[in-house]
Design brief:
By secondary structure, the protein is an all-alpha fold. Helices cover 60% and strands 0% of the residues. It contains three helices and no strands. The protein is elongated.
């Protein structure tokens, strides 16, 4: 499996988090499309089929991530 460069992965992750924070998935057709595009790209870049899993996977692959850091998975 090809892995995205950390800079690309970090950019996708930041764009996704920003759009999610702005609730772009509930906005105009243009903002929904941007949200869906970045979510799809993040899934492709991490080799996942679910955006939540992609966010976790991206966090693990970024520089400085601890190999066993699953803090996003605990309640």
């Amino acid at each position: 499996m090809l892995l995205a460069h950390p800079v690309v992965l970090e950019d996708l992750l930041e764009r996704y988090k920003t759009l999610a924070l702005l609730r772009a998935d509930q906005g105009s057709a243009e903002s929904r499309q941007a949200y869906e595009d970045v979510a799809y790209s993040l899934c492709l870049a991490t080799g996942t089929s679910d955006v939540d899993a992609a966010v976790v996977a991206a966090g693990h692959r970024l520089p400085g991530a601890r190999p066993l850091d699953d803090s996003l998975l605990t309640a």
